[in-house]
Amino acid sequence: MHVVLLVLISLFFCCKAYTNELNLFTSRHYPSDLILFEKFEEKTGIKVNLINAKSKVLEKRLLDEGAKSKCDVLFLADAGALYSAEKKKLFTKYNETRPLKLIPSSLKNEYWIGVTKRARIVFYNPSLIDYNEIKNFSYEDLSNSKWRKSIAIRQSNNIYNQSLVASIIEHKGENFTKKWLNKLVKNFSRKPQGNDRAQILSVAAGESKLAIANTYYYALMLSGKKGEEQKKAALKVKPIFPNQDGRGTHINISGAGILKFSPNKKNAQKFIEFLLTKDAQTLLCNSSFEFPIIENVPTNKLINNLKNFKEDIFINVSSYGKRQAQAFKLMKKAGWN
Ligand code: FE
Fold first, then answer.
1. Global pTM value
2. What spacing in Å lies between the alpha carbon of 195 and ligand 1's midpoint?
3. Residue 293 main-chain phi, psi, to 5 deg
4. Which domain holds residue 195?
């Protein structure tokens, strides 16, 4: 009798544990995301098990494990990385419930959905360049011979750069982009190197006149979390949001999708809905300095000061993924190391 009861109890706990779990693969690396996942656990009773690694590593593991994978949600930075996982048939379609409907159609497709936004913009040094010289700046202007040996940017293997170039191809076509790239590489102030923050540092030091970097790295530097020196450097530069009098500034997302072999698909759907709540958006953005993807989300002032600009909503971010290989080829051909 006791044995039967024990078996029943253990069966109950085993199944309960099973249905109340969520296995999350994420390339995000912010300690405060853990607070967010605890909140989800508190609210729903669903335990979040986290695996954190670079997107390519997560993708490979999912491919290796195939149908045996226990992972439910894949949460990655850059639409190109999401597209890559989609192409490998790792996702299943999500349900477009109310909170998911609120996300603009240019920031999602049927397999994955944007959770936060970031913009890839230009930074200049106001002690070297007058604001009037740059106020109507566009990405197209980056190839102007006026900026010869002036631009700091990272290497062509960087996915953010590939997405940016993919967006130029999408808007202006391959021929234009080829010519644009050939001139752009002549405008590099140095051999592309380092991360996004390194480009801002180069402008702050006066080594380069313009830097290309994502908005959240600038806010991160200003926050002081990367040390006093980086904070001081960030205070020396100013952001310019390109193409404000045209199509708008290039934006990208970090986003998530439900995995095809997910054993807890309902929990996965719930988790994505939770990420799109105001509370979750505040926490996500205050840790990463990205922009919230829904309206009227309270965030800290480093984000608020940056977030009012015209975004390029004319192309779907999934087109970055589609054109990334083409973009990379053209970048290499132009001599972008
Ligand atoms: Fe980043």
1. 0.92
2. 9
3. -95, -15
4. 119-249+318-333
